[in-house]
Design brief:
Order of helices and strands: EEEEHEEEEEEHEEEEHHHH
Number of helices: 6
Strand order of the largest sheet: 1-2-3-4
Strand content: 25-35%
Distance between the termini: 38 Å
Bound molecules: zinc ion
Helix content: 10-25%
Shape: globular
Radius of gyration: 18 Å
Number of domains: 3
Structural class: alpha+beta
Largest sheet: 4 strands, antiparallel
């Protein structure tokens, strides 16, 4: 049985397992989340934790660092970048020697599968971009410093850095884009994608956007359904 109420060391009230319909900032790792989370019921607190942050395993491994044992840490370290997304670890994190990972980056799915307009799309998480990222137009997330993990489609055409999509999510979050979309009912179906249906199938711009939406959803920890694809309404 799933534990629906917990007492967490990071907050003075009990936290309850709930579902956030709009993205929230996790008060543990400071990254964004969406969907299931542990939340304080007192609205004035506005306190959220990713499920994986609230019930974090003390130790973890990752297939990209086979010989590393990651240890959960409550405190972040300024100036230390997450190997996956390149952003500083400002809160909860996993550490193995000099490798740092956000809990949500550690738990990224290794493959994303989607179906749209009769095309199926599969994106694989890779330890580095093998082609240019469609957002920053580079292979490395910070030139010469950090390569950064990327999701790359099996056809090789769609490549997105985890960090670049993460930044995009933050921009959308800061400008209130997600909540506006929610109040307009935009998250209830893939309306915005379907509109593209009639356009020339040669220029598959919508496929590119759909790939991006799959990645954006995965980074927010949302449920991967076609309906969730319109979260960004790109
Ligand atoms: Zn978190
Ligand atoms: Zn509270
Ligand atoms: Zn990260
Ligand atoms: Zn990029």
């Amino acid at each position: 049985m799933k534990i629906t109420e917990i007492k967490h060391f990071s907050h003075r009230h009990k936290l309850e397992l709930s579902y956030s319909k709009t993205p929230y900032q996790c008060d543990g790792c400071k990254e964004l989340g969406f969907g299931s989370c542990y939340q304080c019921n007192k609205t004035k607190c506005n306190y959220h934790l990713h499920e994986i942050c609230a019930v974090a395993e003390p130790f973890a491994t990752h297939s990209f660092s086979k010989n590393s044992n990651f240890k959960f840490k409550k405190k972040g370290k300024r100036g230390k970048a997450c190997k996956a997304c390149g952003k500083d670890v400002q809160g909860f994190m996993y550490k193995s020697k000099e490798t740092y990972l956000h809990p949500c980056c550690l738990k990224l799915p290794s493959t994303l599968n989607g179906d749209i307009n009769g095309e199926s799309l599969r994106l694989n998480l890779e330890v580095k971009a093998s082609t240019k990222c469609l957002i920053c137009q580079n292979k490395e997330i910070y030139k010469g410093k950090l390569k950064g993990w990327a999701f790359i489609s099996s056809c090789g055409k769609h490549c997105y850095h985890v960090g670049c999509v993460n930044n995009m999510n933050f921009e959308n979050w800061k400008t209130g884009y997600f909540s506006r979309l929610q109040s307009s009912g935009g998250t209830n179906g893939s309306v915005l994608i379907k509109e593209e249906n009639g356009k020339s199938s040669k220029n598959k711009g919508w496929l590119k956007r759909y790939a991006l939406e799959l990645v954006a959803n995965a980074i927010l920890g949302g449920v991967l359904t076609t309906a969730a694809g319109s979260l960004l309404g790109l």
